[in-house]
Design goal:
binds zinc ion; NAD(P)-bd_dom_sf; acetylation; GroES-like_sf; alpha/beta; 7-stranded mixed β-sheet; Rossmann fold; binds dephospho coenzyme A; metal-binding
């Protein structure tokens, strides 16, 4: 492409400091170095995690930063020794890397690559230098994706080629929200046909859990959210009932236990709060229930609960990006989408030009959107 080998000037949204919404800027994007790829982002969604960085509750972030981790685009150019993609390929950036070499990547039971931000910083490229500058200042990367920039750079561990015919304005959903929730149900919980499920939080991630529970054949799926405006979509996607904790004087876990006898077979927390994590655990069935934590509470949080909840046979586990090894899984998920085997499109509530990113954040904060997609 004509831009290959040159520094690119393009639009991006920069969070200059905690508490400030991403501001539209012109940034410079340097050339990709060895084992790096520069990508033209076509579409990117806004996830609550991006807002967590705005609010300073995501751990170990350096500011100014360009966030965005649900995106899809086209390879613009590649650095030396890149073999996994070529210019022109359609790709999805991976918010959870798969380096293919670390102990986790070599362990078939783990997707928690040791290059993820849980193990080391992803605020700069692996060689500890950045590719973004704005107004003469270095701007940091986020999760090696930074999809709120028209052009972005990522290492080979954080990118995967997808089907040439995939619609980029749709399949960005597989970069986080849909894969995270859907995988929590089918990979982590392994929901069984005829089972009962409760899903706490009916945002894009919780709704994707519902899609997964339904696909797995659950017979009863109870959505839990304080925002009743989320109920219609949850029911459209497979929830059989929806309840709001605000409608009951007793704790919500007691309501769920009464509704189901001994509690649900599978409960999921897709909010990222300590109190709802404990409520989800206490809602799961005595003797055999499984509770899956999907949301990540603010950094430094500690979970406290009565251990007899576990001694009496409940299992508590967590799910990171749906337990997928993303580089292996996403091409298949995208081809399932192309073959109409899964339908996350209903999660896209708003389509906006990239310049309206602030409106996208406002819709998320007001509880009016599920996923807003920003188009470059
Ligand atoms: N009780 C019930 N519902 C609640 C409560 C409450 N006390 N508080 C909020 N809710 C509801 C909101 O009304 C909303 O409908 C829903 O919970 C949350 O939805 P969103 O749209 O804000 O969030 P999502 O679906 O985009 O993301 C949720 C996550 C849990 C993934 C996110 O917040 C998170 O914890 N991210 C970090 C974990 C991670 O890394 N995940 C993968 C990459 S994002
Ligand atoms: Zn996300
Ligand atoms: Zn790895």
């Amino acid at each position: 492409m004509a831009t290959a080998g040159k520094v690119i000037k393009c639009k991006a949204a920069v969070i200059w400091e905690v508490g400030k919404l991403p501001s539209l800027e012109e940034v410079e994007v340097a050339l990709p170095r060895t084992h790096e790829i520069r990508v033209k982002i076509v579409a990117t969604g806004i996830c609550r995690t991006d807002d967590h960085v705005v609010n300073g509750i995501f751990p170990n972030i350096d500011y100014p930063v360009i966030v965005g981790h649900e995106g899809a685009g086209i390879v613009e150019s590649i650095g030396p020794e890149v073999t996994c993609v070529k210019p022109g390929d359609k790709v999805i950036p991976l918010c959870l890397p798969q380096c293919g070499e670390c102990a986790s990547c070599l362990n078939p039971k783990s997707n928690c690559c040791l290059k993820t931000h849980f193990c080391q910083s992803q605020n700069l490229m692996p060689d500890k230098t950045g590719r973004f500058t704005c107004r003469g200042k270095q701007v940091y990367h986020f999760l090696w994706t930074s999809t709120f920039s028209e052009y972005t750079v990522m290492p080979e561990a954080s990118i995967v080629k997808i089907d040439d015919d995939a619609p980029l304005e749709k399949v960005w959903l597989f970069g986080c929200g849909f894969s995270t929730g859907y995988g929590a149900a089918i990979n982590t919980a392994k929901v069984e046909p005829g089972s009962t499920c409760a899903v706490f939080g009916l945002g894009g991630v919780g709704l994707s859990v519902i899609i997964g529970c339904k696909a797995a054949g659950a017979s009863r799926i109870i959505g839990v959210d304080i925002n009743k405006e989320k109920f219609a979509k949850a029911k459209e996607l497979g929830a059989t009932e929806c309840i709001s904790p605000n409608d009951f004087s007793k704790p919500i876990h007691k309501v769920l236990v009464e509704m189901t006898g001994l509690g649900v077979d599978y409960s999921f927390e897709a909010i990222g709060r300590i109190d709802t994590e404990v409520a989800a655990l206490a809602s799961s069935c005595l003797g055999s229930g499984t509770c899956v934590l999907v949301g990540e509470p603010p950094s430094g949080s500690q979970l406290a609960f009565d251990p007899t909840l576990l001694l009496t046979g409940r299992k508590l586990t967590g799910s990171l990006i749906g337990d997928w090894k993303l580089k292996d899984a996403l091409p298949k998920l995208v081809s399932d989408y192309m073959n109409k085997k899964c339908h996350p499109d209903a999660l896209i509530s708003h389509m906006l030009p990239f310049e309206k990113i602030a409106e996208g954040f406002e819709l998320l904060r007001a509880g009016k959107s599920i996923r807003s997609v920003l188009l470059f």
